[in-house]
Design goal:
single chain; 311 residues; alpha/beta; Rossmann fold; five-stranded parallel beta sheet; four-stranded parallel beta sheet; 11 helices; 9 strands; 37% helix; globular; binds phosphoric acid mono(formamide)ester
Length: 311
Amino acid sequence: MDEWTKHDLLDLQELSKKEIEKILETAKSFKQVSTRDVKKVPALRGKTVVMLFFEPSTRTRISFELAAKRLSADTINISASTSSLTKGETIVDTAKNIEAMNVNAIIVRHSCAGVPKVLAEALEPSIINAGDGCRAHPTQALLDMFTIKERLGRIEGLKIGIVGDILHSRVARSNIWGLTKLGAEVTLCGPSTLMPVGIEDHGVRVTYDLNEVIENSDVMMMLRIQKERQNNIYLPSLAEYAKHFGINKSKLKKKKSNLLIMHPGPTNRGVEISGEIADGESSIILDQVTNGVAIRMSVLYLLLGTKESLT
Ligand code: CP
């Protein structure tokens, strides 16, 4: 791939396989910056990056901020609860006021699907989707793919199980788009009430048998039950869910030892994953978090940087 041409990052559906591979490749060269004594390169000196989060976040917000700072950009954090949004200003008006201060990128998380797209259509700065409702979380899927590739050397041909609340998961959707583009065989597993109708049309398999996923997968991604997005009763109880779809040592006993366990976080220990598995040797959950900084550096650099700025 020659030149990077995209101005925004809204989801992985809009990226080609080559563009996804370019982000992963660029992240490789940025990963070592975070291991240096001086964790900084001047790639985005003079650029301003705004974090506009309307939903709670630990990993995504902090790693975007670290990524921008390690590229020498200036960063501003805006919390919706302390902004003029509470006085009735619309999101677009708030964002246009931020734009008027000559910022270069706005990273947005919102509970409504489509908010990043609306802002991208209305504003000049690059818009990066940090999670919109149940729809997309592109940088999470990119860091997941980076972590798998780092561990196993490839994505193509791997068998990847995504287990849990698929219906409400933006992480699952973005991973389905990204992993299938890169040639993985993706199997979804979870309660039938939390499985989107027609999801097989996106090139994935569906099973309701967790043991089948455990036996056949190279990698399993465990998802949290998203209680904050559920208005209806989808499950008899969390204990019932844990019994059928949670993983623990005894369920993984028969599996070959090289199964990798991932989780985007935050984890609900004892529900979708037991503490001993989350902290165990097959877990690469904290590698995902580490790699999130490199992936977000890569995304910011490709969207905002120039060829000459990487040193
Ligand atoms: N994985 C993820 O998006 O975590 P946060 O909600 O903490 O950002």
